Amino acid sequence: MSNKGLFITLEGVDGCGKSTQGSLLANALEATGREVVRLRDPGSARLSEKIRLILLDPANEDMCYECELLLYEAARAQMVRELIEPTLARGVTVVCDRFYDSTYAYQAAGRGLDARMIDEANKLGSCGVVPDATLVFDLAAEEALARATHEGADRLEGEGMRFQRRVREGYMQLAKAEPERVRVVDAVGTVEVVHARVVEALRDVVTL
Questions:
Q1: Is residue 121 a contact partner of residue 73, using CB atoms and an 8 Å limit?
Q2: Alpha-carbon separation of residue 175 from 92, 101, 179 (angstroms)
Q3: Alpha-carbon span 68 to 125, nearest angstrom
Q4: 156-175: b or e for each residue (b if 16 or more CB lie within 10 Å)?
Q5: Which long-range contacts (CB under 8 A, 24 or more apart) does 68-73 make?
Q6: Phi, psi of 30, deg, nearest 5
Q7: How many C-beta atoms surround the C-beta of residue 153 within 10 A?
Q8: SS3 for 119?
Q9: 47: Cβ–Cβ under 8 A, 6 or more apart, which residues?
Q10: Rounded to whole angstroms, how far apart are CA atoms 192 and 153?
Q11: Rounded mean pLDDT of the chain?
């Protein structure tokens, strides 16, 4: 559709600062006159938020990896059908905190599930929707995890340092595999410095 909105996703290990940068990016986009909708994956839609609570609850430590994968995809499918597709169809820009690249990084690289199975599951969960651009905020796992857990850890954050390192490496693999879509942003520095890198990384996608 010629009037399709712009779909930008933000990725990275827990504590990398992507949520803060997402707010700055949304503000910058709105300053250009664009209507912007911010979403988070898993979540945003009513049913998806209920699934999010299950996924992140530390009490659910007995959740098997396959169950985890399917819950993420179920939450994503609901969000896509209910929110992302209608929003993009109206020509509105969507900035989403995580999308299917998180599933590759966390469930394939982090958990060790088969990458081909993850790819097929992601096709189902995303309902075929592909981001126009994906920003991976890269930060050392040690620093990121310290940021993320200073007030306590959710179920994924509680997996520890070795898990977070595998997740980070998974993101780097994605960036190498899809350099046109997946852009790595150095997340070291002040909020303003990192935002300037975001603007530069999206230069070929949108003028900010």
A1: yes
A2: 26, 10, 5
A3: 13
A4: bbebeeebbbbbbebbebbb
A5: 68/107, 68/111, 69/103, 69/107, 69/113, 69/118, 69/121, 70/121, 71/42, 72/42, 72/102, 72/103, 72/107, 72/125, 73/103, 73/121, 73/122, 73/124, 73/125
A6: -65, -30
A7: 16
A8: helix
A9: 75, 78
A10: 27
A11: 94
**What per-residue string of b and e applies to 19-37 under the rule 16 or more CB within 10 Å gives b?**
eebbeebbebbeeeebebb
pLDDT in tens, 5-59: 999 999 999 889 999 999 999 999 999 999 999 999 999 999 999 999 999 999 9
Instruction: Calculate Rg over the CA atoms of the chain.
Output: 16
Q: Mind listing the domains of the chain with CATH numbers?
A: 7-201 (3.40.50.300)
Strands of the chain, DSSP E: 7-11, 36-40, 93-97, 133-138, 182-186
